[in-house]
Amino acid sequence: MFTLKDLTVEEYILPGNAACSGCASALSLRIALKVLGPRTIVTIPACCTSVLQGYYPKSPARVPFLNTAFASAAASASGMAAALEIKGREGINILGWAGDGGTADIGIQGLSGAAERNENFIYICYDNEAYMNTGTQRSSATPRGAVTTTTVTGKAERKKDVPEIMIAHDIPYVATACAAYPLDFAEKLRKAMTIKGLRYIHILSPCPPGWRFPAERTVEIGKLAVTTGAWILYEWMDDKYVLTGPSKGLTERSRRRPLKEYLMLQGRFGKLSEEEAKVLQEDVDLQWERFNRRLRESAEPSK
Q1: pLDDT tens by residue, 41-53
Q2: What is the largest CA-CA distance in the chain?
Q3: What's the fold here for domain 4-299?
Q4: pTM above threshold 0.85
Q5: What Å distances lie between residue 143 and 55, 75, 159, CA to CA?
């Protein structure tokens, strides 16, 4: 397993950048580049990371970043991967890095196409569960009950399960991660680096201004997302699901903390009634029932 000693002391995202205080995406990108190293090219669509990586000619990034259109992170990564292959350049990591809006909504056509072709790059969605860079509008990854500027009484629909959509494409590797568990993320990224083809990692990225909590509680809230079971840490490879990190011990409801502990720390859930909170708890329990069934089925010997 990955340890702190395995992380290089080199920094590829320098301090003094324009990310918000407590930005989980900035934390995850820092870890990602420590794992991937200096021979990495990052492509990003319009998103919070466009702000983080700065305005020309100044940038905190020590690796190349390509800014592309909102729908085009996976398309631009596909093009770069093809160009490197044609030129015979090896040992360079291509990283598509996009938010949930640029992944689950606007960019899913390019991502689906790249997955169908099994393009050779890593794609990471940092999921802060809304369009944060443009004012906290709901996305299809916004969870049910969350207040945004376009769902002022709380979103009525459930969160889109993008990792399962990617698994349906039968790409070589799919995993989830959480910014509050950086070593679990680093281990999955290290594994992804050893695989050829499209590898997809979906990171839960708590957002202080969008989720309405104090910046110093980012890691606490990320850990609560996992320990309450609202966010499941797992990886999928060779048709098998494997739980990772704290999620390994949470298959039974009695081992999970009450979802209310997670909800009550976020202003975006401030309008929930007790009955609505119970419905969200039922959603989590159902999510685990379905996931436990997938675990059992994937563990069965092939017929």
Answers
A1: 999 999 999 999 8
A2: 60
A3: Rossmann fold (3.40.50)
A4: yes
A5: 32, 27, 5
